[in-house]
């Protein structure tokens, strides 16, 4: 008899029929190659490979999902496949090793355009019937990179892994090419969560100047969304602002679990216009943490991300933010000069955060700073280059009219009591 815990979704509203795939659809796995998983807690493993020659003709991806080696489910935290979006004739060196290794060829750093992203708890993702993700073609560089995040907190040795992502691909093209945009916070330690907090919010911004530069004139339609944090995340939502007025949220989860991260098809595609702003807010619980939790790649660090899937494909790939250097420098100077804390922006940011003795007033000061301070924007194309614009010390979006709370469709208390009184009489 076994024991343990398993998370499950008690109710799923089926709002989309699964499209029928064409007869020429074929499976294409992109897998790690016999990786000896390091016994470190966190490892990002990268494998660059060349696509098969059949993909010199444009195809559409209709579905992708996890192909995890049996027995290694506890180690594979999340995976992504990136396209090396550069000139069609550029040769990217084949590489198979840690993503942060000094031996990794520099040219592989251009493999940044997201083709697929999977995280623990998610099933396969099926595109709507009118949309496919473009892969291959005359002007498509033939190199891709698989990135696997191995989470090994027990420091297990000797595990061999060949997990990856499996695609369903067809040459029967659909009406629209899909794209992926990454919203939220940068994975850096400028954004931090104090310890012993029951509820602490951080927000990442996609400002109107960035969507104005990176989206087509007629806008895009978002049909899917994947929310992502690490261990302390409890809520995630992405708000949608147009001309200062907040409209319906793009996606939200008020009972978020990092162990259950699915890509959700939206009930109806949401239109995002150039000039709209998007605010992704994550709520964290650090009651069991003894010191600061920093933004970063480790499972013990934190993230705040929403991968949105949309059509038609556009230039914009990353629309994320962090607090401006000047604002954080001012906060650390205040902590040093007025609170006698050992903080210094010119040294490691993580060290300054860890040196602060966190009181309620210092936590409140940091929270207020994050809400109002100018930001630094990553408004990037798929190769990592920033779109034209001034992206430092940008003002956070101003919401003139907030979205009212959702009205719950249930009987009012007075009606409920009146009906029960009538029954008693």
From TrEMBL:
Q: SUPFAM superfamilies, alphabetically? A: PHM/PNGase F
What region holds the Copper type II ascorbate-dependent monooxygenase N-terminal domain?
28-156
Q: From the Swiss-Prot or TrEMBL record, give the protein name.
A: Tyramine beta hydroxylase
UniProt entry tagged with the keyword Oxidoreductase: yes
Cited PROSITE patterns: CU2_MONOOXYGENASE_1
Q: The Copper type II ascorbate-dependent monooxygenase C-terminal domain covers which part of the protein?
A: 176-332
Origin species, per record, is Microctonus hyperodae (Parasitoid wasp)
**Signal peptide (residue range):** none
**Where does the source fall among the domains of life?**
Eukaryota
By sequence similarity, the record places it as follows: Belongs to the copper type II ascorbate-dependent monooxygenase family.
Query: Which keywords describe this protein according to UniProt?
Result: Copper, Disulfide bond, Glycoprotein, Membrane, Metal-binding, Monooxygenase, Oxidoreductase, Transmembrane, Transmembrane helix
Q: What is its main location?
A: membrane
Compartment(s): Membrane
């Amino acid at each position: 008899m076994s024991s343990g815990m398993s998370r499950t979704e008690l109710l799923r509203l089926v709002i989309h029929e699964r499209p029928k795939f064409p007869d020429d659809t074929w499976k294409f796995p992109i897998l790690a190659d016999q990786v000896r998983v390091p016994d470190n807690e966190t490892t990002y493993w990268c494998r660059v490979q060349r696509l098969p020659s059949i993909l010199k003709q444009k195809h559409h991806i209709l579905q992708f999902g996890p192909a995890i080696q049996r027995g290694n489910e506890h180690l594979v935290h999340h995976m992504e496949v990136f396209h090396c979006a550069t000139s069609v004739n550029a040769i990217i060196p084949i590489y198979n090793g840690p993503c942060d290794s000094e031996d990794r060829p520099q040219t592989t750093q251009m493999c940044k355009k997201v083709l697929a992203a999977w995280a623990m708890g998610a099933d396969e993702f099926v595109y709507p019937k009118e949309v496919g993700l473009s892969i291959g073609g005359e002007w498509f560089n033939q190199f891709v990179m698989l990135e696997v995040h191995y989470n090994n907190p027990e420091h297990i040795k000797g595990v061999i892994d060949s997990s990856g992502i499996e695609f369903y691909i067809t040459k029967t093209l659909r009406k629209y090419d899909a794209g992926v945009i990454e919203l939220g916070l940068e994975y850096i330690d400028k954004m931090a969560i104090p310890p012993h907090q029951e509820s602490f919010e951080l927000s990442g911004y996609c400002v109107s100047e960035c969507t104005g530069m990176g989206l087509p004139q007629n806008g895009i339609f978002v049909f899917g969304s994947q929310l992502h944090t690490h261990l302390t995340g409890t809520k995630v939502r992405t708000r949608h602002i147009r001309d200062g007025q907040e409209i319906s949220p793009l996606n939200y989860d008020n009972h978020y679990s990092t162990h259950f991260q699915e890509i959700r098809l939206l009930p109806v595609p949401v239109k995002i216009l150039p000039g709209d702003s998007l605010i992704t807010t994550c709520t964290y619980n650090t009651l069991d943490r003894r010191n600061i939790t920093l933004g970063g790649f480790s499972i013990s660090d934190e993230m705040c991300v929403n991968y949105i899937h949309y059509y038609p494909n556009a230039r914009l790939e990353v629309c994320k933010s962090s607090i401006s250097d000047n604002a954080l420098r001012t906060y650390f100077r205040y902590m040093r000069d007025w609170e006698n804390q050992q903080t210094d922006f010119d040294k490691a940011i993580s060290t300054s955060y860890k040196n602060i003795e966190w009181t309620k007033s210092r936590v409140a000061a940091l929270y207020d700073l994050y809400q109002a301070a100018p930001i630094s924007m990553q408004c990037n194309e798929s190769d990592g280059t920033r779109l034209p614009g001034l992206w430092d010390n940008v003002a956070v979006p101003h919401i003139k009219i907030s979205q009212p709370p959702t009205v719950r469709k249930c009987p009012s208390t007075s009606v409920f009591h009146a009906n029960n009184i009538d029954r008693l009489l």
